[in-house]
Amino acid sequence: PASVVKELMENAIDAQAKNIHVLVTDAGRTCIQVIDDGKGMSETDARLSFERHATSKIHQAVDLFALRTMGFRGEALASIAAVAQVELKTRLETEEVGTRIVVAGSKVETQETISCPIGSSFSVRNLFFNIPARRKFLKPNETEDSNIRVEFERIALVHPDIAFFLHSNDSEVLNLPVSSLRQRIVSVFRKKLNEQLLAVKVDTTMVTISGFIGKPEFSRKRGARQYFFVNRRYMRHPYFHKAVVSAYEQIIPAGEQISYFLYFELEPDTIDVNIHPAKTEIKFENERFIWKILAAAVKESLGKFNVSIDFDMEGLPDIPVFNPQNSIESPKINYGEKFNPFKTSEPEPVYLHSKTTDWKNLYDGLEKPSFNEEEYALYPNEPFIEKGTQHLQLKGRFILTSVKSGLMFIDQHRAHIRILFDRYLKQIQCRQVLNNEDMVNLVDSLFACQTPNRTPDGHTVLSTIREEYIEKLFK
């Protein structure tokens, strides 16, 4: 059923229809009707349209290499008429009456002149009525309805200048009036999709690529809308899909998908659509170059419109825009004629040869002991560190303080070790020893710890020697 809908809709598009109505009953088992307001057919063409390999879309073999129509084989109507009961009503704009033809199982049952509107109306009833085994293997109605909608959407997405209407069991499913491409995409799927799309546009001598791609923040695990169209024809192309995915590397999580609707326009003689019965696989003459153009176009759109990318323009030079009308002047060089590179600004030294009478002043300050903190510092070359006034504690381990140059982090544990080390070093330098009270306080504080025998680094703090070992030392 979905293939029947696809072929009949493509015929209506080739007939330059502006309004196409698709009516489906029982998922296409009972009836599929496609009505258009295109050019229509004459009585002779209407009769010949059901013959195999009969088509009015190409006139010579060379036309196969420059296809601009959706159909060209002349097999669709003949194949449909072979397995169903088909009724055709058609009329040309220049004719006052039309033609009605009924074909069942490839046999013409009725051909008559009737009154009907301009265009064509195909009714396909009782699909596979003469092949019960094939009809038995039709999928459930829900699946067939879904397949019909997929084919309907693929054609509607690439023709926003045509109004499409889809009805299923007398209920309207889709109503797509003539609109812009972006509005057509939003109408087919959902309104929320509008805010997720980024425009893509690149025009080269080889190919023109336009359409929309999804924003990185709207990636999903499954269910992404991914469509390629070439010369208004839907296609599947894994190679071009990799070009789009490569542009999103390290932007979206691995394994997630992104939606895109990309339209290719190029010369028909550079592609071959006649390599698969469904016409969904297309061979390109310049496939590798188009891959690079596509990848560059997607990356450019992401760089232009993705708000998460921040370009720091501060401090960049102001590059003027080139104007070919302005005359080009050579740069002027200004220099000082009196400039001497060997002349220094320092005053010349003055040498005094007079004898110094106040010789005692030469020894002033020698009797006073000078004190230099760097001689006693642990790290003499360490630069001066600023000290802040406001302090905050982070996770019970770090102290944050603001200084003039920025923000300072202090490790509490290491700071405490540094303070104790300086105290101990000062006591050694001053040759101070602990009195009895200090020793008692030190031992009490040590045994108040959870592990007094080990340091946090695993070193031994205290060890016990038995009395018999002490006695052995004095024997």
From TrEMBL:
GO terms for cellular component: mismatch repair complex. Pfam families: DNA_mis_repair, HATPase_c_3, MutL_C. InterPro entries: DNA_mismatch_repair_CS (IPR014762), DNA_mismatch_S5_2-like (IPR013507), HATPase_C_sf (IPR036890), MutL/Mlh/PMS (IPR002099), MutL/Mlh/Pms-like (IPR038973), MutL_C (IPR014790), MutL_C_dimsub (IPR042120), MutL_C_sf (IPR037198). Keywords: DNA damage, DNA repair. One of its GO terms (molecular function) is ATP binding. Residues 185-303 form the DNA mismatch repair protein S5 domain. Signal peptide: none annotated. PANTHER family: DNA MISMATCH REPAIR PROTEIN MLH, PMS, MUTL, DNA MISMATCH REPAIR PROTEIN MLH1. Belongs to the DNA mismatch repair MutL/HexB family. This is DNA mismatch repair protein S5 domain-containing protein.
